[in-house]
Amino acid sequence: MTKHGVNSEVGRLGTVMLHRPGPELKRLTPRNNDKLLFDGIPWVSRAQDEHDAFAQALRDRGVEVLYLTELLTETLQSEQARELAIAGAMSSLHLGDTLRDYLTVALHDQSPEELAAFLTAGVRNDEVRGGFGLVTSLLTHDDFLIDPLPNLLFTRDSSVWIQDRVAVTSLTMPARARETQLTELIYTQHPRFAGTPTIHGWQHENVEGGDVLLLAPGVIAVGVGERTTPAGAERLARQVFAADLAHTVLAVPIAQERATMHLDTVCTMVDVDKIVMYPNVADKLQAYAVTVTERNGDSDRDLVLQVAEAEPFLVAAAKAMSIDTLHQIDTGLDPVTAEREQWDDGNNTLALAPRVAVAYERNVETNARLEEAGIEVVAISGSELGSGRGGPRCMSCPVSRELL
Ligand SMILES: NC(=O)NCCC[C@H](N)C(=O)O
């Protein structure tokens, strides 16, 4: 088994999982893009070019790039994995038994490549050649029987590595819920990951990876807002404490709105003691430090947690990280530029190593500030990729980083 693991946001990146945008993006229309969490209709081939350049920038710096579709296809070579994948997709209550029985057999007849394509790009009512009955008749021709997953692009959210464990998350928005069926399948069935211990899981309270920041070894910040719920933050805290993966979890309330859907849309680490942060919220950002006071057994439910009074985020973080100051680098130049660049994922950087970070080139002012602060910016273009509202960090799931 290959050794994987991550204990910070900035340790030298070894292996990352990406998803090259594919046919699932071609499912987006002006009628469904809001529901599918895209702000526009991306030009797919240009999005692919931009994504290829992103992947190449990572490889050029020695990062191993794994693609979700390739891992999924390899996973689906196994009969057991196929059974699980098909059962998961067929569990939707939209189908009805006639259609479900037909589709179950039809999907079993597909090659691993074809099955992976149906699981990611979905299946429309008018693409099915059998199983006709009440449900087929009552649905419209372009209703999806298996929903497409255009947000697979944002591999950050559907799993997160914490030390040597992988947490399959529990996604809040219905349009994304099925993504974790695929990440769970990969991590539990793909030979590369065989035996990897997992925590959390899609059946637990909502936690999304974009809300989970490994500020330093043993210190995890968890954003609580539109996606991760208070109960999700508590469950994740319990699980990481039970497995001895952290000593402090900082629960960080963020506004429940699209612009700040995850904590990593507001701030990301670019060095062991530097964070790029949206200044319009920085003063208000608070954190509740959570620690363990008693262990009455082995399960996460047997822990007694202590929750400190809320403190300014930067103060609470520096304390938990045992450093004097967590230095803030501001997004933008003035409040309006900051608002524009935050919206365009200026805060959403992916650190390749301490003081080296991938960022969208369009966020000119934020990138200039990063450079001034001694951060090397690896600039990528994201005109089409950004239409789903996610930047380099959202589009990447680090699987291994040099441990700090
Ligand atoms: N970590 C992130 O902020 N991920 C971006 C997710 C964007 C996606 N369209 C969503 O709304 O979930």
From TrEMBL:
Keyword terms of this UniProt record: Arginine metabolism, Cytoplasm, Hydrolase
Organism: Nocardioides jiangsuensis
PANTHER family: ARGININE DEIMINASE (PTHR47271:SF2)
Protein name per UniProt: Arginine deiminase
Organism phylogeny: Bacteria, Bacillati, Actinomycetota, Actinomycetes, Propionibacteriales
Documented EC number(s): 3.5.3.6
Enzyme class at the top of the EC tree: hydrolase
Active-site residues, Swiss-Prot/TrEMBL: C394
Family per record: Belongs to the arginine deiminase family.
Superkingdom: Bacteria
Reaction(s) catalysed by this chain's protein: L-arginine + H2O = L-citrulline + NH4(+)
Main location group: cytoplasm
